Amino acid sequence: MRVKVTKDTLDELLSAVIELIDDNQKSESTAKNFQVVCYPDSVVVYFLNYTNLLQSIPQIEEELQKESCASEKRIIFDRLTYMGNASNRYADGVFDGKHIVKDSLQDIFIPKESELRKRSVMFYKDKNLDNSILTKTQKRLIKMGCVL
Fold first, then answer.
1. Phi then psi dihedrals of residue 50, to 5 deg
2. Neighbours of 137 (CB within 10 A)
3. Which end of the chain is more exposed for a tag (fewer CB within 10 A), N or C?
4. pTM check: above 0.85
5. CA distances from 103 to 51, 52, 94 (A)
6. Over the stretch 73-108, which tens digit does the pLDDT of each residue have?
7. Contact call for residues 58 and 108 (beta carbons, < 8 A)
């Protein structure tokens, strides 16, 4: 059985495919690579995939500007998803209300017993960590609520 396809039909089909591709690319580019969480004593930016801190600064600044808890504060960055459970996994920096002061960014050491690490495991426990450098064992420990 042969179906006759007109040029108009092909044009409509091609337009629909292009629109779907554009929509998919837009949703991927607007997907968040991080999440800002305000605690009573700190503000933490948790990374959700391989995207690193320096690549994300403009988006993080935009998000921090929306958060009243973050104005003119020290911000902690948990880079677990792209640094792994390394001693330099955490960083901090100053947010002046509009921008992250780049000269203030530094690696910090957070002891395993700290409240921050407990909060981190609770944050990551229910997250999809497939787009991270974590090993299967590390992912399983996090899902079980074990502090890394």
1. -70, -15
2. 8
3. N
4. no
5. 20, 17, 9
6. 899 999 999 999 999 999 999 999 999 999 999 999
7. no
